[in-house]
């Protein structure tokens, strides 16, 4: 398997580590059922150069705290690069995309109310089953994300500037 740093894990639940294809590793630290749905918390590592699709959340806000590497975030009209120690909050309904820098990026992701961890748990491959051939099931991921209130607005590499003046988010 490609090199990824070790992620945080809960000693009570070591099985909550996942692979989304070859570009993203996620460890669920706190899930909705542990916070009565108020929030969830994940520790994620994106491989260098990997990017999310352009999307918006209609049911939860996303907060990022970068612990190593860098992330470029396009959110609405903003474009910024987050480095170790930087924090950024993406409000509801804001079209956004995230790309890892040249050394990849590790970040804590908080969604409030909870949502992102459920998308991961329902669509990703348990890390202990992942191989060099593990691929993301894009159809399943998109279906679950849509069920959770996410709107896919464009492919990886697209930014909010690529949207028509009135977007559906």
List keywords for this structure.
single chain, 169 residues, mainly beta, 8-stranded antiparallel β-sheet, two-stranded antiparallel ribbon, 42% strand
- Most strands sheet: 8 strands, antiparallel
Q: How widely separated are the two ends?
A: 36 Å
**Class from helix and strand fractions:** mainly beta
Low-confidence stretches: none
Return the string of H and E elements.
EEEEEEEEHEHE
Q: Would you count the extended β strands for me?
A: 10
Mean pLDDT: 92
Question: What spatial form do the alpha-carbon principal axes imply?
Answer: globular
Helical amount: 10-25%
Q: Radius of gyration, Cα only, in angstroms?
A: 15 Å
- Classify the beta-strand content into a percent band: 35-45%
Total helical segments? 2
Overview of the structural elements:
- A hairpin with a 2-residue loop joins strand 5 and strand 6.
- The protein has 2 helices and 10 strands; from the N terminus they run ββββββββαβαβ.
- The longest helix is centred in the C-terminal third of the chain and has 10 residues.
- With 169 residues, the protein is mostly beta strands.
- Strands 1, 2, 3, 5, 6, 7, 8 and 9 form an 8-stranded antiparallel sheet that branches. Strands 4-10 form a two-stranded antiparallel sheet.
